[in-house]
Specification:
This protein is an alpha/beta fold. The chain has helices spanning 33-37, 44-66, 85-102, 111-117, 119-123, 164-174, 181-189, 216-228, 235-260, 276-289, 298-301, 306-317; strands at 3-8, 13-20, 23-31, 73-81, 106-110, 130-135, 140-145, 154-158, 265-269, 292-294. The protein binds 5'-O-[(R)-(carboxyoxy)(hydroxy)phosphoryl]adenosine and zinc ion.
């Protein structure tokens, strides 16, 4: 059994996780969210500096929680992209340093593969085939996933403009709510009427691409509504109606993808999968359609270290050759597979621990 240390630093969370054989042994999370709030969004240089301060304490914390020491670590996995360039750089450099000093292999993994892999820690191995809806602050994608460690990921459709989480963050800003907007809108929407305003369900017409998303028009529709409204704005109703439009659009398309591809499992992951209405509507629609829904606990939906350790664990157990220690980060890496370049990208080391060249 190999114990994998996972490091996540793609945005404003410094996450460390320790996983072996599909079991989460320990994890620790630090966030620089408060430092960004006054700017209304993440400032990359502030995030990178915060990662630098937090990374070693978080590793120590996770090891302590797992009740193990450095000598027990058998492999290191670190996010190599996508994400904020300087932020990814810090975590990947730390991952290389730990791998080199411990003499263990390094895996530079794709952040979005982590969002999908984390579900294994709570709900066991993934089925042979599933549809995954990854909804985060930077991405919104409908995917066909097979063996995450070995098979290429098939993109059924992605967003053509804003990601779902980005829409939550921008709409929150419009409503005068703090960053990050998703959790705040989720909370405020509980007191609102989701049918108060009929916001558009973007790209759901009969002629529209069935699995692609677009959220910038919805954001504009909310902006128009706010501009044109006279009197005190019913913020809870706007939040609930916006959230309903997002939840309806996401789940409608995800269910269609499962049906069209004869897949009986939907994996709902990423920060927006923490949203209570998205979860409830997905549960209801999957139950009606006889589709098995897998969603991680909210704390594992948003960025964390366990998700990266979970990918590393899948790669180790699948005997996938590790990366070389001169691996470069790719801030805009497209998801092709668990490793940054996707399966068989010819970039991996042949030896166990890789070497600098
Ligand atoms: O996956 P994640 O932690 O980071 C990225 O990889 O981007 O996702 C962060 C996004 C943010 O846009 C945040 O507003 C959104 O997920 N989010 C939520 C909720 N919690 C986080 N959106 C809606 N409802 C939530 N409860
Ligand atoms: Zn993420």
């Amino acid at each position: 059994m190999t114990v994998v240390l996972g490091i996540e630093t793609s945005c404003d969370e410094t996450g460390v996780g320790i996983v072996a054989d599909g079991i989460l042994l320990g994890d620790a999370l630090a966030t620089s969210m408060d430092e960004h709030a006054r700017f209304g969004g993440v400032v990359p240089e502030i995030a990178a500096r915060a990662h630098l301060h937090a990374i070693t304490p978080m590793v120590d914390h996770a090891l302590h929680q797992a009740g193990i020491g450095f000598a027990d670590i058998g492999a290191v996995a670190a996010t190599a992209g996508p994400g904020l360039a300087t932020a990814v750089q810090v975590g990947l450099a730390a991952g290389k340093a730990y791998a080199l000093s411990l003499g263990v292999p390094l895996y530079g993994v794709h952040h979005l593969a982590g969002h999908a892999a984390v579900d294994v820690l709570e709900h066991g191995p993934l089925p042979a085939r599933c549809v995954a809806l990854i909804v985060s602050g930077g991405h919104t994608s409908l995917l066909l996933i097979g063996d995450l460690a070995r098979d290429p990921v098939v993109h059924l459709g992605d967003t053509v403009d804003d990601a779902a989480g980005e829409a939550f963050d921008k709409v929150a800003r419009l409503l005068g709510l703090p960053y990050p907007g998703g959790p705040v809108i989720d909370r405020i929407a509980r007191d609102g009427d989701p049918n108060a305003i009929r916001f558009p369900r973007p790209m759901t017409g009969p002629q529209d691409p069935p699995y692609r998303f677009s959220f910038s028009g919805l954001k504009t529709a909310v902006a128009r509504h706010v501009e044109q409204h006279t009197g005190p704005l019913p913020v809870a109703d706007v939040a609930a109606s916006f959230q309903e439009a997002v939840a309806d659009t996401l789940t409608r398309k995800a269910l269609a993808a499962c049906r069209d591809h004869q897949v009986d499992t939907l994996l709902l992951v990423g920060g927006v999968a923490a949203n209570s209405r998205v979860r409830a509507l997905a549960e209801q629609r999957c139950a009606n359609a006889g589709i098995h829904l897998r969603v991680p606990s909210p704390r594992l939906c948003t960025d964390n270290g366990a998700m990266i350790a979970a990918v590393g664990d899948l790669l180790v157990r699948a005997d996938v050759p590790p990366d070389r220690l001169d691996l470069s980060p790719d801030p805009s890496a497209v998801l092709r597979g668990a490793l940054l370049g996707g399966p068989g990208d010819g970039r991996q080391a042949t030896g166990a621990s890789g070497t600098f060249v």
